[in-house]
Write a structure and sequence with these properties.
- The chain is α+β, with helices and mostly antiparallel strands.
- The chain is built from eleven helices and four strands.
- The mean pLDDT is about 95.
- This is Polymerase nucleotidyl transferase domain-containing protein.
Length: about 240
Amino acid sequence: MTAQQPLAYDAFVELALADSAVVGLALKGSQAHEGLTTKHSDHDLYVILADDAATDLTRFTGHRTPELDLVIVSLAGFRTAGMPGFERYALARARVVLDRLDGGIAQILADKARLDADEAFRDSREWLDAYANSLYRSVKNDRDGHSLAARLDAADSIRFLLELLFALDRRPRPYNKYLEWELARYPLPGWDTDMLLDAAAHISGTGDVPLQRHLFARVEAAARRAGHGAVLDSWGEDLDLMRPR
């Protein structure tokens, strides 16, 4: 299309529907999250082609405008997209626009939304250690009078905490933009959403040490129930600095 007539989302979908090489379309981003679209929201569309299919639609590879961003990928490439990777959450919550595989596209997206048991255990272990590390640094810096460092470490700890909590529930962590949307619809088991979000906001902004310690007590209990006691015990006596006084 010309610069004066950029390719619109609806027009491209019509082209894709008419092309038998296209086995699926998946819309991600704000357009796939009810209530989050604005006048600035574009359409981020995955175009899934049958493996080894020939199609003129490949001319749109890399197409990116304020209205429409296209990712054109083979079915094999779509299966592995975001596995692992930053794109995983976006695909986990993508909306199916076209599925010519009798539910196969939807199943691929559902698989991305659920970490397998081994992956979740491994990721949880790593995020738990990262969370404890940032928490420990924050509390120690606060003790030693390094207020800025303490707040920055506290903010880092919240990032790792969220990764941990979603991994414990075998889910990819949502991007910050979608965190409240995600938790409002799919709360984390055992966690009050409002309490968790309020604590994340307050700790990130202030580095509140008593609140960090209170939150850690809950995380420690959940982590031990999930079988991660060894990660925590590796911190030895340093755990005392993280726990409530």
